[in-house]
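The authors assume throughout that readers already know how a fold can be written as discrete tokens. Each protein is reduced to its one-letter sequence and a matching series of backbone shape codes. I therefore recommend that a typical entry be quoted early in the introduction. For illustration, here is how one protein appears when written out as sequence plus structure tokens:
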Amino acid sequence: MARCTRSFISIVAIPGALAALAPAAAADLTPVASCQALDSPGDYTLTADLTAVDATCIEITASDVTLDLAGHTIPARDRASPAAAR
């Protein structure tokens, strides 16, 4: 005699838990169009190529910061200068 077994899988979603796994939507990104300090946690996107005038163009001083260069560059004006982003 054959036996039929059924299995059920329960999925419990914790609000916001799945959002942390998904990449940030474009609307959730804070645009960066100039050299500046990023001093608040969040997701940022570069909206144009930037040029470092002095040693630092983008300085990240907060935790939990993501900067998407979106295909843009941040070269130093003088090749002898240190890195333009730190």
Summary: The helical segments are 17-21. The mean pLDDT is 73. Strands lie at 30-32, 36-38, 42-46, 58-60, 65-68.
